[in-house]
Amino acid sequence: MEIKPLTRVILGLVCLLVAIWLVAPTLVVVPMSFNENKSLAFPPQGFSWQWYQNFFTNPDWSSSFLNSLKVASVVAVLATVLGTLAAFGLDRMKAGPANLLRMLMLTPMVVPGVVLAIGIYAVYLDTHLVGTMLGFVLAHTVLALPFVLIAVSASLEVFDRRLETAAASLGAGALTAFRTVTLPLILPGMLSGLLFAFATSFDEIVVSLFITNPYLKTLPVQIFSSITRDADPTVAAVGTILLLATTILIGGGMLLLGQERKGRP
Amino acid sequence: MKPGQETKGAAIDLESISKAYGAFKALDGVSLRIEPGEFMTLLGPSGSGKTTTLNVVAGFTDLTSGKLLVGGKNVVGVPAHKRNIGVVFQHYALFPHMSVGRNVAYPLTLRGVGPAERKARVARALDMVKMGDFAHRYPSELSGGQQQRVALARAIVFDPPLLLMDEPLGALDKKLREWLQLEIKRIHRELGTTFVYVTHDQEEALVLSDRIAVFNRGRIEQVGTGRELYDEPATLFVGRFIGDSTVLRGEARSDGASTALTIAGETVTAPRRIAGEARPVMLLRPEKLAIRRPGQEAAGTTNRLPGTIAEAIYLGSGSKYEVRLADGSTAVVRSPLTSDSFGLGERVELCFDGADAKLLADDSSADATLT
Amino acid sequence: MSAREPTTPSTPKRAGWAWRPFALTLPALVLLAAVIGYPLLTIVLRSLSEPQWGAQNYVWFFGAPINLTVLGRTFTISAWVTIVCVICAYPYAYLMTAVGPRVRLVLVLCVLIPFWVSGVVRTLSWVILLQDSGVINSLLRAAGFDGIRLIRTQTGVVIGMAQVLLPFMILPLYSVMKGIDLRLMRAAQSLGAKPSRAFFTVYMPLSLPGVYAGAIIVFILALGFYITPALLGGPRSTMLSTLVQTQVLSLLQWGRGGAMGVVLLVTTFVLLALAAPVMRSRYREAGRS
Fold first, then answer.
1. Which residues have C-beta within 8 Å of that of residue B102, sequence separation ≥ 6?
2. How many Cβ atoms from other residues are within 10 Å of residue C19's Cβ?
3. B60 — contact with chain C (CB < 8 Å)?
4. Which strand (E) or helix (H) includes residue B100?
5. What is the pLDDT of residues A29-45, one digit of tens each?
6. Contact C36 A111 (CB under 8 A)
7. Is the pLDDT score of C119 beyond 90?
8. pLDDT for B332-366, tens place per residue?
9. What does the pLDDT look like over A48-68, one tens digit per residue?
């Protein structure tokens, strides 16, 4: 379809604005993190590393960061295992029950966060799980499960199941066939599920706000309370560090993927 | 749309049209006149420029240079939606969100035709393609052949003076294709509109067309009726593209009014010569060739070439043989059932009358484009 | 086919394997039941039983004007967010289908970059941008305009939420648009439609399933938003989620908070149920090339 030049220009401008709108909020924390004053007012004044120092030395920040890392790592593994098993189960089921169960397993994505949060909070109060590692892990795993399910299901959908039959005809037992044929082919799906699960847990805030206590905070909870309490630029420093870390991770991942693609026909 | 109506199609004049994409010339000085009401087929291999020509006429592609007249009016620079030309696409291009009826009504709605007349004309167009009972169906519920008939109805419902068809049957299987070819022929007769039909299938071109323009590498090689192209090909490319053929190449000698070719030590002659300096080759149609056992008498043939039977195919109405000649090339021969039959590997002689051989300028690119 | 031959080891076993797929999903289902099902059930029960059994909490909820105001506002804000998202996402997604692979990569990255930073940090960014001494107001003043109040207003909340939710609109829209056969536009033009007419009669109807899908996702997610309104909004832009939180954490009114939660939950699922048939509309697949 040919677009008229004028339409093209207007379209381009609108999209540029939208792109700025999308990206700018991500970057605005960077200059704020070097602010000399304890203020989030714009423009930032002077230059200092003190908020970065604060992040690494203040136990409130460093412990919440470590907590988040711990929880997210356990959640990533647990959600990937459970999600992959479930995705396999659904893949080998009849369409009817499979669709029903799939919808059920995706509900955590659509249940409003606060509703889920008060429910989990109520149950945790009764079972003394508030402010515990186990409590965080369980809640985050449920929230991460749909992402793993979607990622693994997607790679199972393109997986040609006759390959397993072929492996069997070549003398592989069911387990060997799974390990040598199926697993390597759906591994990318599992890995992206793992990544999503980690990110979901690391980023989760609503449920965390309810099941946290002063002794066990995750990073988002610490950030939230810092924002609501005072204008501490440490938050901006944390944001900048996270942005940098994700960029490096994703950039590296893309490079790796690119090279792997080149290696394959 | 009434049968027996006078011709109401538009004439089309292409005057040295060129279309370049960077250094690549998709069309290189194409000139063609299409008469009102004519069924003209643009025939050629893929990439030969036939579809580009169609897109230029439809207004989808701007031309780099040249003149384009439809119905005597210059349409260069006129956008596609103002040209009033019907187009049928290979991929049907039916709007999936509209029923068959609304698809066909679409061009009428755009032209502000009132509901009552719209309904009548849609019904007439659908009846013409025998899809009258499908007005309420959606395209996804139809087979490929049905979709293409609806697309045809949609392209003729607004009575365009010119209908362009871009390999409309390319995606259909052979049986359906043959039946729809006859349908298209009937509709052309009933409408009297000018049809321009693009295909790479020479049989389809022969079935449908009044005249055929053979495209090769952005140029028109020859324009003529199917018979003219088959019997009197102007170039080696045309001769090879239309119908089966055998090409004999050898050391050429022309003297007076005849040409002799020496192929692996054997000489054949034809009572003709070609103009210019080009190397002559002989082109022979399968039915002009005969096979004889060595030493057997052959009446009316002046030339003989030894060879062996490489392939024998029984066709029902006769037999088709491929004969490997001494220089390694292959000749295609069609012989009637009444003649002798030959076995694989049998040594034979290929006979033909020199007068039946077409003398054409050699063009090695003809082989390249065809394979 | 070798699969049909009796020597294939797995064939005879298959019948006895029917329970296995269910067994595989069991761990996930148990966890779901324990951490989603049971808590939600608890909330429903509490909304009906605290302080005593009955529908009192629902009567209270629908009887108090302030609750209805907040409920209405929740819908209004979600609707505005959805509208803003549709308006911004449509040209953006369209451009994504129309440009070359390099520009497309940049456009995709712009959509995905917001996901790279934590949601809380992103909301903080909006505080920095929108506050009275923030980026937008600094720029406005530098350009000689008066500053405008954005933080703790409904406008601020809508701007922030729409940015967070925009990717959920762009991605489904893009996936539908890239499946639209552009040759149909050519066909429409050959039938006499000028480009704008062809767009409105062919392209737009075909892209609507993507708009529906994106709009439903955005609207539902917006209904349950908590963090962004809490940080960017003020008392006059409170949404239902904040009210639920106040009832439960500050007032310890589990019954009332639960009732609100149930209203939010039911609304969400009703909307999903209403949207499902629209998204499965007849021409969704047929529009693809």
1. B95
2. 9
3. yes
4. helix B100-110
5. 888 889 888 888 777 88
6. yes
7. no
8. 998 887 777 888 888 998 888 888 888 888 887 66
9. 899 999 999 999 899 999 999
H/E stretch holding A55 reads helix A50-57
Strand duo B162-166 + B194-199: pairing = parallel
> Phi-psi bin for B37: left (phi > 0), alpha (psi -120 to 50), beta?
left
For residue C189, list chain B residues with Cβ-Cβ distance below 8 A.
Answer: 59-60, 79-81
Secondary structure (H, E, C), C45-95: HHHHHCCCCCCHHHHHHHHCHHHHHHHHHHHHHHHHHHHHHHHHHHHHHHH
Give residue B132's Cα distance to chain centre. 31
Instruction: Give chains near C: 3+ CB pairs under 8 A.
Output: A, B
Which candidate in C44, C124, C238, C271 is best for mutational testing of the A interface (most A CBs within 10 A)? C124
Residues from chain C that touch B125, judged by Cβ atoms under 8 A, are none
Cβ–Cβ below 8 Å for C282 and B58: no
What 8-state DSSP symbol labels residue B357? P
Q: With an 8 Å Cβ cutoff, is A23 touching chain C?
A: yes
Interface membership of C76 toward A (CB under 8 Å):
no
Higher pLDDT, A164 or A136: A136
Q: Subunits touching A (CB < 8 Å, at least 3 pairs)? A: C
Cβ of C72 under 8 Å from any chain A Cβ?
no
Whether the Cβ atoms of residue B153 and residue B131 lie closer than 8 Å to each other: yes
> How many angstroms separate the CA of residue A260 from the nearest CA in chain C?
19
Return the residue in B57, B61, B95 with the most chain C beta carbons within 10 A, the one to mutate for interface testing: B95
Is-contact B131 B63, C-beta < 8 A?
no
Query: C-chain residues within 8 Å CB-CB of B154?
Result: 191
Most A-contacting residue of C20, C24, C74 (CB-CB within 10 A), to test interface: C24
Residue C266's nearest CA partner among C274, C255, C278 is: C274
Token couple for B79: 């956008």
**What's residue A13's pLDDT?**
92
Q: Specify which of A13-27, A135-149, C237-251 reaches the highest per-range mean pLDDT.
A: A135-149
Summarised one tens digit per residue, pLDDT across range B3-31 is 444 557 899 999 999 999 988 989 999 99
Our CA-based measurement puts residue C97 at a distance from the nearest CA of chain B, in whole angstroms, of 19
For residue B251, the model assigns a pLDDT of 87
Residue at C15: amino acid letter: A
Residues 6 or more apart from C66 whose CB is under 8 A from it? Answer: none
| Residue given tokens 């004049």 in the structure block | B13
Please tell me the predicted confidence (pLDDT) of residue C258.
93
Q: Mark yes or no for CB contact A112/C224 under 8 Å.
A: yes
Orientation angle between helical segments A133-158 and A183-203, nearest 10 degrees? 140
For the record, the structure tokens of A185 come out as 């082919």
CB interface of A with C, residues 49-78, below 8 Å = none
Give the whole-angstrom CA distance, residue C65 versus residue C71: 10
CB A205 within 8 A of CB A220: yes
CA-based nearest residue in chain C for residue A114: C241
Check if B154 contacts C (Cβ < 8 Å).
Answer: yes
Chain A residues near residue C48 by CB distance under 8 angstroms: none
Residue-level pLDDT at C250: 87
Q: Can you tell me the mean pLDDT for B268-279?
A: 81
Inter-CA distances, A122 with A207, A215, B102, C58, C227, Å: 12, 19, 57, 19, 20
| Beta bridge partner(s), residue B32 | B14
Q: Which of A215-224, B362-371, C22-31, C81-90 is the least confident region? A: B362-371
Token pair listed for B276: 């210019």
